[in-house]
Every structure is written in structure tokens, then in C-alpha cells.
Design goal:
Layout lengths: L2 H38 L12 E3 L6 E3 L6
Antiparallel strand pairs: 1-2
Length: about 70
């Protein structure tokens, strides 16, 4: 191949790659928007009270942190 042919093929390949990338991005945009919408919604159990358990050294039983004997 000559240098001009190599340069032309390289430019055509680059333009084709950019076109393919834009096509794939455009087709996948709705799916990505739905997925990002799922991340923004609050999860079940968020905002509620958390019970923190601690092991009681005497009995070895797990109890809420404020009820464990020390």
C-alpha cells in the first residue's frame, strides 16, 4: 500500500469508529437513564432506626448496645 492509501484507510476507520460509538451511545441512553433513576430512589429501610448489637461479655449473647452489661 502507498502512504496515501494507508492514510485514507486510517481516516475512514477513525470516522467509522466514531460513528459506531455515537450510534451505540444514542441507543443505550434510555437504558442508562433508567438505571441512574433507580440509583436515585430511596431504598427500602433507609431513614429508619438502626439497632446496633454488641456481644455481652458475661453471657455471650448479642443485645442492643444500650442494654449490654459491662
Amino acid at each position: 500500500m502507498s502512504a496515501v492509501t494507508t492514510l485514507a484507510v486510517t481516516v475512514v476507520a477513525a470516522v467509522g469508529a466514531v460513528t459506531l460509538y455515537r450510534f451505540a451511545e444514542r441507543r443505550s441512553r434510555p437504558l442508562r437513564e433508567k438505571i441512574s433513576g433507580l440509583h436515585k430512589t430511596p431504598k427500602r429501610g433507609q431513614g429508619g432506626a438502626v439497632i446496633d448489637y454488641e456481644r455481652d461479655p458475661e453471657s455471650g449473647v448479642y443485645r442492643p448496645r444500650d442494654q449490654a452489661r459491662r
